[in-house]
Amino acid sequence: MTASLAAFLAFVALGVPIAFALGGAAAIGLALMEGAPLAIIASRVFGAVDSFTLLAIPFFILAGELMETGGISRRLMDLARAWVGHMRGGLGNVVIFGMVLFSGVSGSTQADAAAVGSLMIPSMKRHGYSAARAGAIVAAASGMGILIPPCLTMVVYGSITNVSIGALFAAGLLPALVMALALAVHQMIDSKRAGLEPEPRVSWRLRLRALASASGALMMPVIIFGGIRGGAFTPTEAAVVAAVYAVLVGGLVYREISWSFLYRALVRTGLVSGVVMLMIGGANIFAWLMTVEQVPHKLAALIQSAGGGKTLFVALSIVVFLLLFALLDGLPGMLMLVPVIVPTAQQLGIDLLHYGIIMTTVMGVALFLPPFGVGLFIVLGIAGCGMREITRHLLPYIATMLVVALVIALVPWLSYVVPVAMGLYTVPGM
Amino acid sequence: MTQPRRFILGLDRALGQIESALLAAMVATITAVTFAQVFTRYVLEDPLIWTEEVARYLFVWITLIGGAAAVRTRGHFGLDILRRFAPPLRVALGLATMLVTAGFLALLLYTGIAETRQAALQLSPALQVRMHWAYLCIPIGAALALWHLLAQWVSSGVGAHPLDGQHKQETE
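ok -> structure tokens follow
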């Protein structure tokens, strides 16, 4: 066990892609174990992917690829601009509110940052925002957006831990709103101090027109939630309906999906699904080793013997998530941790729904944490500024986000209230 | 350009195009099949029984073919800090990484062949087809990925690294 853990760390440091590092390290562990059948390598990979629940992943990716055409993101941003652009904080608010809408049609945080960033940063620059300030606001808003369903992180977490994915989606809503409000207030104070003017007020007629023009895209979250909430759809079924809906809206209503665009979106969906699912396959070989060697059990005992309980464990988790997800692009880091850390959390009596929301929240921060966060590099490329400049503007936002993450960790009610009200979850012991 | 080199790189490119076409076809099919399942269950209230099984096995195929194609397009995630901060180690890091990756893929190929052979004796629950059709993607995917690694090694030399040019090369 120690050998395969050490091998894994060494492989990752060398730069072996995570999927192969997980599989390779697990193979070393298997080779050292007496009588362990090597054949489980292929069968664990097969078993991990042969899952109807995880099938939601390619469908959400496909829906996102199709909804991210220029026209749809532009419509959502126009809507945000018409409704909140005149408020103090102007375009900064548009980014945050627009991100709430956009995350509702897309399951990938990096894609959100790219789509909203490339649309908003140039126009923010024209209105007097520095590249670094504009980039920092987009980065912080994208980090918030991970909590808004659909969310691939939650699909993967739910499928590994058997927590209802519908409940996870619902549980993210209120924390996302709190995070969005905190960022908006922070941003308003910040732009007022910088002397940035809001946009002119827009008439109600134009506001309603913007709403109508974006309604095709806005129906997407309604379909996903309506389906899951009614108990009619499983998340996979909701995801496939969303993907087909995206083809129809983008192709027939908005007329923005050409055949070559569709082909590229299909190929990209296959590629991204392959990358994500191979990591899950590799993690599944690793998880087998962990279970056989009773690692989670030992880890829980260790934490308890150190005099720590739930609180210490959650606090440690947040620190580990923040560093590991920043270094390992979020999802790969999560796949590495979940097999060990979730059973440990369970042994300590931590509710896995709440724990999953904490993990997702911290991942949102980590993806944009200077100097490693992978999302941050996307924003830097679009804004055209340096790491040092953006860090100066981004760190205060990161601090705000971490405070909100602590609130989410300390107030489980925020995560429970929506899924319980929707009848998707029963809090144990309540 | 020498003959074997041209052959390896040419086949690599051709395989890449086949993979892209296969992925597009499979993703389109899996979407249609799963949508048909939802439609027949909720609208016609007479669900098809074979759709879920087809979708799950197609999903495994998409994963292995997509995972192999991503080796060629450098789509896999990895940590490249050490390489960024220690340029003198580039060749050594590249070589070690390629060997580990190839080693795992070779194991996947070997165990995949064994599993596929065994699966020939089983029938799938709904469709009653031989299970080796589902498992076959594992050895095929591993072999394709190995070929892409070989091609990268041939085109970029001993210091080639699976993460080189990450996310640059898009689909064709």
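Confidence is low (pLDDT under 50) at residues 167-172 of chain B.
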